[in-house]
Design a protein that fits this description.
Helix content: 55-70%
Mean pLDDT: 76
Number of strands: 4
Low-confidence stretches: 1-37, 124-134
Strand content: under 5%
Number of helices: 13
């Protein structure tokens, strides 16, 4: 089911009563205020509320967090989900802990368990302040510099791939875990999501081996170009080498895009 149709189906479902919402909040150990108890949201409305701050959030991610026991929306007699405002705060806490503190779900679940025991409270804050960060350079300026650390199961949920496809990506060197552990970074997530989108157009993993080979060749070209800089003394030389890597990477990506556009223009005219 697509994200749009899933949200539409949820929005047509009947609302729970205020008593049901209070009951659900009590089971989690999070007291619901009387005014909040009557305010319930379907999953599409929850998605809309979270998307402004977390653009990558999806319906499948929300359902996944529920399956992991991190949020427990109330259920109607027909077993339809209805989320309280406390549920939305809970989801926001999970997403913030993942993105800003790089916490695995196991640790986040422990934090929420402390919340359920009444040992702490979720902050009721407005939009978070965005800290000043230096402008990204090189590939960071094109792809983003967000640092994440997610498990294999989280990667599958966030990308929509199944385990067999992810295993094929790994065997072809297109995706791999961070060195020294079973976690993945933002680049792995970007590749996995892109592969999922390409698959909808009939592009298979075996078709993408050339992309990996081209990346290897270009990385080798950059390494050869900066080798003379790295052979000098430490200090300014290292900084200059890093700047050169960023500059060369950006130039190669731009050239690749220009060449691809040229080829596609020939295909369209032919």
């Amino acid at each position: 089911m697509s994200g749009g149709s899933g949200a539409a189906a949820e929005s047509m479902r009947p609302s729970v009563s205020a008593g049901d919402a209070r009951s659900a909040a009590g089971r989690r150990g999070t007291p619901a205020r009387a005014g909040d108890a009557a305010k319930t949201l379907n999953i599409g409305e929850v998605l809309d509320r979270l998307r402004a701050e977390y653009p990558d959030i999806t319906l499948s991610k929300i359902r996944y967090l529920e399956s992991e026991g991190l949020v427990e929306p109330a259920r109607t007699s027909a077993n339809y989900r209805k989320y309280s405002l406390d549920d939305v705060l809970r989801l926001r806490h999970v997403l913030h802990a993942q993105r800003e503190r790089y916490l695995p779900l196991r640790v986040i679940k422990e934090e929420l368990a402390a919340l359920d025991r009444g040992e702490t409270q979720l902050p009721r804050t407005g939009p978070r302040a965005v800290p000043d960060r230096p402008a990204g350079r090189g590939l960071d300026s094109l792809l983003g510099a967000e640092r994440i650390r997610i498990s294999r199961r989280e990667l599958l949920a966030a990308s929509g791939l199944d385990d067999d496809v992810l295993a094929e990506l790994e065997s072809n060197g297109l995706v791999g875990p961070i060195a020294g552990g079973g976690y993945y970074d933002a680049d792995a997530l970007l590749v996995a999501r892109t592969v999922a989108l390409l698959a909808a157009h009939g592009v298979q993993v075996r078709h993408l081996r050339a992309a990996r080979a081209a990346a290897d060749r270009e990385a080798g070209l950059i390494e050869a170009a900066v080798a003379p800089l790295r052979s000098g003394r430490l200090g300014e030389t290292d900084g200059r080498a890093a700047e050169t890597v960023d500059e060369l990477a950006t130039l190669l990506v731009r050239m690749h895009a220009a060449l691809l556009r040229t080829r596609l223009a020939a295909v369209r005219s032919g």
